[in-house]
Amino acid sequence: MKQPSSDRFARGIFTASLALIALVYGVVSSWWGWFPAPQLGEAHRTFLDVKQNWRNDIGLEPTRHLVAPNGPGTTDPDRGYERRPGTERAPGYILIAGLSDDQDTSVFAVRLMDTSGNEVHRWPIYYENFDPDTPPQNVMLHGMEVFEDGSVVVTFDVGNAIARVDQCGETMWSVRGGFHHSITRDGSGGIWTWLGEDMVRLDAATGEQTFALNLRNDVIAANNGEQRAIFDIRVRMPDDADSSITYLDDPFHPNDVEMLRPALADAFPMFEPGDLMFSLREPNLVAVVDPQTGLLKWWQHGPWFKQHDPDFEPDGTITVFDNATGATRSRILRIDPNDRRISVDFAGTEAEPFYTWRRGKHQTLPNGNLLLTEAEHGRLLEVSAEGDVVWTHHMVWDADSNLIVTEARHVPEAFFTNGTPTCATELAER
User: What is the 3-class SS of 90-131, one letter each residue?
Assistant: First the structure.
């Protein structure tokens, strides 16, 4: 029997109404983060990640660690170390942290390079020795700190451990937990790093935690929450007056913490020895905090964008690795915390490109040069105080790809107490 036209019309109106309601709810749920928008978004991101990195995750190819080369000579399959004539290189060794280049997708390494760009020692880093529950091919060696006895401490992205290994890669101690990003020594037997949203100090000899300062509870909430506005940038506003503000995903992304050592304190009269400087990537914030009270003594949002690795410098300034994400040219900025004057120590150019949209480190060397870690292109550079490139080093994987470099560190020639670190296997190969 043929349906009356009025019934067909009513059904059409009902169907269209449902479609309109679904459309409106979809827009609103996406805006406010209601079900199922977050779940669908996460599922989509997971799908894209698996599609791009499935070869990595089953151990065939380390796609999570491979990046396109950058700078002069990128098309040369034999690219590697290049020394520029007419420049002065800082004497000493360079330590480089990342994935091993022996075609094993789950073995990390810290390499020690001499002034000719030759590898003279390698620390093998076996993540499964510290955390047997996480597939090693899915994590990334990130933070690295070196000691005079030839040992190193390491942390990992997407990992769950911090560890100290001797010069042959044997575990001296390891601690489970969400430690991440940079590691810095405090000059008095401790190391500082991030554990989740805690700035923590560990005893370098044992790995025991001796201090923690929580970002939300001890800093943002300090002094009855009067510092909240400095941090509350990535938030979701309430839909009524009785609801509280909630943070968006990864609102801070802390990536560095270091203590002001007594040896540098005279250069920073507005601070005290033991004050902590930290970097929060998402709000573009660099700040110095009193660890005992949680009160900020100095802070600034930008002009750096998605920055990393602020350092106290001996002249009383602070240098910052400005990723300048999206601008295609990263910079090293220098700020005077007294008057907030900004200068540029180094920036990429068309002739000498320098850019990493995330990660990245810098170090001021004894002769005034800068050591730069261009993480997302797998390249190291040393540049003079005048901005001239002294040398570059591509961490080559194959003709088309470099390995991500997460940390590079310069140490003087006489840094190691017992000379250049060696192991029995290296001695046998020589």
Answer: CCCEEEEEEECCCCCCCCEEEEEECCCCCEEEEEEECHHHCC
Rg (CA), the chain: 25
Q: What is the largest CA-CA distance in the chain?
A: 97
Which residues face 258 on adjacent strands? 277
Q: Are residues 325 and 388 located together in one domain of the fold?
A: yes
**What's the pLDDT tens digit per position in 295-311?**
999 999 999 999 999 99
Residue given tokens 């100290």 in the structure block: 164
pLDDT greater than 80 at residue 2: no
Q: How far apart are CA 44 and CA 64, in angstroms?
A: 18
Residues 407 and 337 in one domain: yes
Contact of 110 with 143, CB cutoff 8 Å: no
Domain-embedded: residue 346: yes
Rounded to whole angstroms, the Cα distance separating 160 from 153 reads 14
By the 8 A CB rule, do 124 and 107 touch?
A: yes
Report if residue 54 sits inside a domain.
Answer: no
Q: How many domains does the chain have?
A: 2
Looking at residue 221, which CATH number applies to its domain? Answer: 2.120.10
- CB-based contact 331:344 (threshold 8 Å): yes
- Altogether, the residues listed in the chain come to a count of 430
268, pLDDT greater than 90: yes
Distance CA 51, CA 63 (A): 11
Q: Looking at 356-430, which runs of residues are DSSP E strands?
A: 361-364, 370-374, 379-383, 389-394, 402-403, 405-411
What is the rounded CA–CA span in Å between residue 53 and residue 241? Answer: 44
* Tokens encoding 353: 């490109």
* 303-333 pLDDT tens trace: 999 999 999 999 999 999 999 999 999 999 9
Question: Rounded CA gap, 397 and 418, in Å?
Answer: 32
- Please report how many Cα atoms fall inside a 13 Å half-sphere around the Cα of residue 20, on the Cβ side: 6
What is the tens place of the pLDDT at every residue in 347-375?
988 889 999 999 999 999 999 999 999 99
State how far the Cα of 260 lies from the Cα of 272, in Å rounded to an integer.
7
> Domain range spanning residue 18?
5-34
* Residue 76 CB neighbours (<10 A): 13
CA angle 428, 119, 154 (to 5 degrees): 100
Q: What gap in Å lies between CA 164 and CA 221, rounded to an integer?
A: 33
Structure tokens at 142: 């990130």
Amino acid found at 381: L
Q: Which pLDDT value is given to residue 11? A: 67
- The candidate with the shortest Cα–Cα distance to 141, out of 113, 186, 105, 110, is 110
**In contact, 370 and 332? CB cutoff 8 Å:** yes
